[in-house]
Specification:
The chain has 13 helices and no strands. By secondary structure, the chain is an all-alpha fold.
Length: 316
């Protein structure tokens, strides 16, 4: 797969998982559903690797970095994000999750020694503005309890425990970014993405299972078609395929540019919501989508291909 295909694959799948997660809510506790998701994903990856005879002979140091990747990216990240969404709307969580593009830039500089690329920072900042324009109406109404057409009383928001949700989601983004850095580290150590994900998701599912058990959650299961179907989709497509594509892309173009995908998949989620949940696009939302595309163009360095930036000196 080329870089564009990897980017679009992970963005499209993750954009659809927002809708699929709604079928997971109800009988089974959210954290337990995450345990099921990554345990199943780990089993799928192990089965595939064994079928293809992919080796799992890694050093203790290799296992350490795989463990870090799994706990950060698949464990703490999802745990805190799910907890945060119980206190704030998914729209606000979507905006906050875009902070990963900045964390990736900073952590890649600190832990990997990568240079900070100005075009990535500028493009990401433009993209964040687009995301805010798309989701801000939902945040304003959802967080303050106002109805469409009513004036918004922000004191409701500031007096609520929404700040705890904000801190949780932002902290989850920090862990996700550290997981991205760990993945870049494992790939630079020549550890294949498939084996690293199989072990990392396994480690994460064990950790989250222990957290769920200590928290006193029941390991119930919903045998309905909607729950089982969405669980399989989230495990196979949302975890195995999407993370495989994304982390492969991350190894090719770096955590800073790969992190821009967090600005794209929320938009795709809104497109799915348009068809399945009757989401109504606003003028600000359409303008925000246009801004995100511009930010993506800049962040990926495509602007350098324009004639203005690609002038060659002429000889006389």
């Amino acid at each position: 797969m080329n870089n564009i295909a990897l980017f679009l694959t992970s963005a499209f799948i993750w954009g659809s998982t927002w809708l699929m997660i709604t079928f997971q809510l109800g009988v089974v506790a959210p954290l337990v559903s995450v345990v099921y998701r990554f345990f199943l994903a780990s089993l799928i990856l192990f089965a595939y690797c064994l079928w293809r005879r992919r080796p799992f002979r890694f050093s203790r140091s290799d296992h350490f970095w795989i463990l870090v990747q799994g706990l950060m990216l698949f464990g703490f990240n999802y745990w805190l994000t799910y907890l945060g969404i119980t206190k704030i709307t998914s729209a606000l969580a979507a905006i906050l999750s875009t902070s990963i593009v900045y964390f990736n830039v900073v952590f890649a500089r600190i832990f990997l020694g990568d240079k900070i690329k100005p075009e990535v920072v500028v493009g990401a900042s433009i993209g964040v503005i687009g995301i805010v324009l798309i989701f801000l109406p939902e945040v304003q109404l959802g967080e303050t309890g106002a109805q469409a057409g009513e004036s918004i009383d922000w004191t409701v928001f500031f007096k609520s425990d929404a700040w705890a949700g904000i801190v949780m989601v932002l902290t989850g983004s920090v862990f996700a970014s550290l997981g991205n850095i760990a993945s870049a580290k494992t790939q630079r150590r020549k550890i294949p993405v498939l084996q690293a994900n199989a072990l990392g998701m396994g480690y994460a599912s064990v950790l989250l299972a222990l957290v769920a058990a200590v928290s006193g959650l029941n390991f119930e299961f919903d045998w309905s078609f909607s729950y089982v179907g969405s669980l399989i989709y989230l495990a196979l497509f949302g975890s195995v395929i999407a993370f495989g594509a994304f982390l492969t892309l991350l190894g090719k173009i770096g955590p800073d540019k790969a992190g821009y995908i967090s600005l794209v998949y929320p938009v795709i989620a809104m497109v799915f919501s348009t068809f399945f949940e009757d989401y109504q696009w606003t003028t600000e939302g359409i303008f925000g989508l246009f801004i995100i595309l511009i930010g993506n163009y800049i962040a990926m360095g495509k602007y350098k291909q324009l004639p203005f930036f690609n002038k060659t000196p002429t000889t006389t």
